[in-house]
Amino acid sequence: MTEPVSILSVAEAFPPHRLRQAEVVGLCRDVFAGRPEMFARLEEAYGNAGVETRSSCVPIEWYNEPHGWPERAALFQENALALLEAAATEALSQAGLTAQDVDTVVAVSTTGIATPSLDAHLLNSLGFRSDINRLPIFGLGCVGGVTGLARAADMARTRPGQTVLLLVVELCALTFRPQELTKANIIASALFGDGAAAIVLRSGEEAGAPARYLGSAEHTWPNSLDIMGWRVEDDGLGVIFSRDIPSLVRQDVRPAMERFLESLDTDLSALAGIVAHPGGRKVLEAYEGALDLAPDVLRHSRAVLKDQGNMSAVTALCVLNRAIGAGDTGLHAMLALGPGFTAGFGLVDLG
């Protein structure tokens, strides 16, 4: 097993607007009025999603109006930076550090574009040192939290004694396009929320650290580019959900997970829990079936989905934060799926 990396803190931040699922259903019934038969057929998706509330960087009325790239980009940068500042400040405070103590920052997002990247903007607003190492990561989608944590841990491991700050933000609200009257867009509107997370890491064993990061792996399926992602449209990003993801999970995730755990000299029986990205209720049920999990193993994943929806890359880190906050201990496997089509795995030791 490789040298462990200490997770010194995990923090979250959410935008101010709270959306109840019943409100979203009412809005989308109007938005998709042009295809009433299709919406009636898919309306049950809102009740079956496992989502009760979620946070949004824009008020609910915003979703019922057309918006172009310039407006979306400006809203993304403004709100993403505010959330990352809040999450980073809290994570550093929990770790007893300041922005001046950070040697490397890894910033992950897929729901908006900013150049200079978000981490460059934060150098000024948070007060990072001018010699800080920056790694912005784009395009990982829902797997971005798990894979971003793996990249941040790799960087910490190769820089003994240095402090690495992982920042993840997704503003799924800003990708909603009311004129796209498709099944995929309806499913997205039933699931997606906004949020940010930050994690402070340092190589080696740190006294009092709530978790240790032990290793990671990925599995990408050939010829699977059409399963999940974004299409670049004239006015924004169009969502892609093209295949039955729960079926793929049931068939293929267990062998990939077992190979990953074997590479770290452990197996499923040694796990005390699983930190799974809750892509949706059906995906969580598919994980349970594929991995033979007891009903309460994914309780934190279900709780985050219920309270905040699917926040793409941010969600798995919020599940990790729930597990730490609940006092869970022992080996936990992290698991998420994203564009590629890719499964991301991580192994953490809590407590």
TrEMBL record:
Residues in Chalcone/stilbene synthase C-terminal domain copies: 220-323
Question: What are the alphabetically sorted keywords of the record?
Answer: Acyltransferase, Transferase
- Active-site residues from the entry: 142 (acyl-thioester intermediate)
GO annotation terms (biological process): polyketide biosynthetic process
Would the keyword Acyltransferase be found if you checked this record's keyword annotation?
A: yes
Please list every transmembrane segment annotated in the UniProt record, as residue ranges.
Answer: none
Q: Where is the Chalcone/stilbene synthase N-terminal domain?
A: 71-203
A family per Pfam:
Chal_sti_synt_N
Instruction: List the molecular function annotations (GO) for this entry.
Output: acyltransferase activity, transferring groups other than amino-acyl groups
State the superkingdom: Bacteria
Q: Does the keyword Acyltransferase apply?
A: yes
Give the record's family classification: Belongs to the thiolase-like superfamily. Chalcone/stilbene synthases family.
> What name does this protein carry?
Type III polyketide synthase
Q: Which organism is it from?
A: Hwanghaeella grinnelliae
